[in-house]
Amino acid sequence: MAMFDWASESAELVVLSLLGDGPGYGYSISKEIAARSGGTLKLAPGSLYPLLNGMEAEGLIASSWEEIKSERAAPDAEGRRRKWYRLTSKGRRRLDQRVASHRAFRGVIDAFIGGRKIGDERTPR
Amino acid sequence: MSALKLVRTGAPSSLPRDLSMSAERSPEDHRVFVDRLSTHLRVGATRRKELLAEIEAHLTDRTRDLMVAGMSEPEAAKLAAIELGDPALLAARLGAALAAPRRRRLVNIGMILVASVGLSFAVTGLVRQPRESTVEGVSVFQPPAAAHAADEKPVIIDANQTWSSVFTQAGKAASLPVQVLWNHLQSLRAELGPDGVAGVEFRAPGMPLNAAIAFLNDALSLTEDDRIDYRVQNGTLVFASSSYFDRQESTLVTFDLTTVVNATLGEQAPRQDSVRRVMQSIQALITSLVHPTIWAERGGDRGVVTFFGAKLFVRAPQRVQPQIQWVLDEVAARPAVPQSRASDGQGVAVEFKLVPRLTVLDSSGASALGSAAPASRAFELDSMKAKDLREILGAIFELSPALQSCPVPRGLVITAGTSERLEFSATESQVRTVSDLVAILDRPVPKTTHASGDTRSFPLSHIDATRTAALLNAIFGTSPYLANCPTPRSIAIETSTNSVIFGSTSDQVDAVGKIIELIDRPAPTLAGAR
User: Fold this and answer.
1) What is the pLDDT of residue A120?
2) CA dihedral defined by B466, B471, B473, B474, rounded to 10 degrees?
3) Which chain A residues are closer than 8 Å to B109 by Cβ?
4) How does pLDDT run along chain A (125 residues), one tens digit per residue?
5) Do A28 and B129 touch (CB under 8 A)?
6) For residue B324, what are the contacts with CB-CB under 8 A and spacing of at least 6?
7) B-contacting residues of A 22-81, CB under 8 Å?
8) Which residue, B310, B312, B328, is CA-closest to B272?
9) In this structure, is the dihedral angle defined by the CA atoms of residues B266, B268, B273 and B276, taken in order, positive or negative?
């Protein structure tokens, strides 16, 4: 079984990309990562929240709070709060940079592995 | 001996009727977790309040999803808290992320791609690799004989079984031989009796091994030293106590703290006794804050902290090294700043406003997810290769909204055996859909060489036509039944109507129609979910 530890830069790129599509809160982001990767990628919550808060401290994302109330709750009852994140202009620039460097890197690697299939045995040149 | 029943299996008799009200409460496990997190957080009051609210919201959301999947509230609340890992470590990570955003990139955040198995699982344990240090002059000595395994294999325990077969079953799911070091599981033996099997019923369909083991540890009230743990060592899944692995994974690390000492004392060449005082303070800081019970000076037998001049030597289990690293990073980052100022939380601008938006959990949403109870099924494949099928199913999960997300842990595992075998665990409805898909894809090569042709247009409602065509092409390349076509085959896309137009034999057109019917379905949603 192959198992890779993703560098935090990759996780940052994933989170920036998701928030580039629209605001999200922690749990929705973690579900979205799993959903878009068909369940093969998962960012553990113990890693996700430090990452989000670090990105916010760096100014890449900004947050706002939403109050959630049950429809059965009394009108003056305090609801629970949910923290929504959105991309800042600095975050968008970082996303563009990361996407560009990721594509460049992928292009270089593809030049080596292009048409190769797994288990492909080729005669050495 | 104790009788123990931990996790509900199969479909619940009814889904929780009042998920919204349930989720509004703060179960005991959440309160305990949040309290412990609060204790360890080293941030200002405002920031603390926000972090705790954010984590509490996560716990509530996750618990709600697990309840929708069929768990009882206490079970769901407990698992949600377990998935967040050690509150002390989370507090340390949050503190580090906020204190030094630039250093955040050095933290191994434990995002895991489980490509070949396709089974995702929550990383709840400690990150085992010490992160790169910001303290100057750090060197790490790791004995070559260190036998810890970083490549733990995720497995699921997915059957009604007695406790005696849990270990065996776990190894079977991981396709690994199992070794249980009972001599290093003394407390468990004492709990279960001499045969190690009495009365325990362990049912955890679809639950990842690490979460299941955490459940067991909590239920059996095992101490930190006696907790059950596991590693993959030399291709074998080994179970033993966490203290056993701690001893195996003991690591010696040295830190050169000259810069820290000089900055603290404000001198370039401080006196020896001054250096000793600073080093003693750092030593006390570590032994009192980081897993206090392991240190020799506190009666433990797994850790030693000592120093020579401004060099600190730490021999300790690898799992605790990141926390020591963090303590030292914190000391090194602001050696001259009083604690009260260092933690006042004023250095970071936070935008705070209440969004005028109300989200209400739609109680009818629960019935939309009515078949979200965990389930699993093993497919003995006749024609397709298991790895090909897994790849195709992965692509389908990515495309189909109905299959994209799964409120319970989802597994897609190839199991060893004489035939090609794929085990799938997810919600009942997803397992049903996948079963129908496999029934179409895993047919043998058709024997007829002549067949009547047909062309049909499939307008799509929930999936993109271009991506669907790409998926179908991938299927044609892997499913023997669909790969062989006695007549010319065509596939086209009509973007204006988001349709796929497919021409082939009547049988193949029918098969493609069924595949599309199975994957062109909307996601089950709860109002208010993103």
Assistant:
1) 64
2) 150
3) 6, 8, 11, 43, 47, 50-51
4) 233 334 456 888 999 999 999 999 999 999 998 888 877 777 888 889 999 999 999 899 999 988 876 666 676 777 778 899 999 999 999 999 888 888 887 888 878 877 777 776 655 54
5) no
6) B253, B286, B290, B314, B316
7) 24-28, 31-32, 34-47, 49-51, 53-58, 62-73, 79-81
8) B310
9) positive
Please give the residue of chain A at the shortest CA–CA distance from B235.
A1
Number of DSSP helices (H) and strands (E) in chain B, helices first: 20, 20
pLDDT, residue B22, reads 44
3-state helix, strand, coil in chain A (%, to 5): 50, 20, 30
Q: Interface pTM (ipTM) of the complex?
A: 0.87
| Closest residue in B to A10 (Cα–Cα) | B111
Token pair belonging to B43: 């941030």
Min CA distance, B99 vs chain A (Å)? 8
State both tokens at A88.
């800042």
* pTM (2 d.p.): 0.37
β-partners of residue B455 are B503
Answer for the pair B469, B491: CB distance below 8 angstroms, yes or no. Answer: yes
Q: Is B207 helix (H, G, I), strand (E, B) or coil?
A: strand
B window 328-367, beta carbon within 8 A of A: 348, 350-355, 357-361
What is the pLDDT, as a whole number, of residue B503? 82
pLDDT at B477: 80
Would you call A38 and B395 a contact, using CB atoms and an 8 Å cutoff? yes
Query: Which residues does chain B have within 8 Å of residue A9's beta carbon, measured at their own beta carbons?
Result: 105
Q: Which residue has the higher pLDDT, B403 or B194?
A: B403
Give residue A53's pLDDT.
93
Residue A82 token pair: 């949910």
DSSP state of B474: H
For tokens 């929780």, what's the residue?
A: B16
Q: Which residues are CB-contacts of B37 (< 8 A; sequence separation ≥ 6)?
A: B51, B52, B55, B87, B90, B91
**Contacts of residue B96 in chain A, CB cutoff 8 Å?**
50
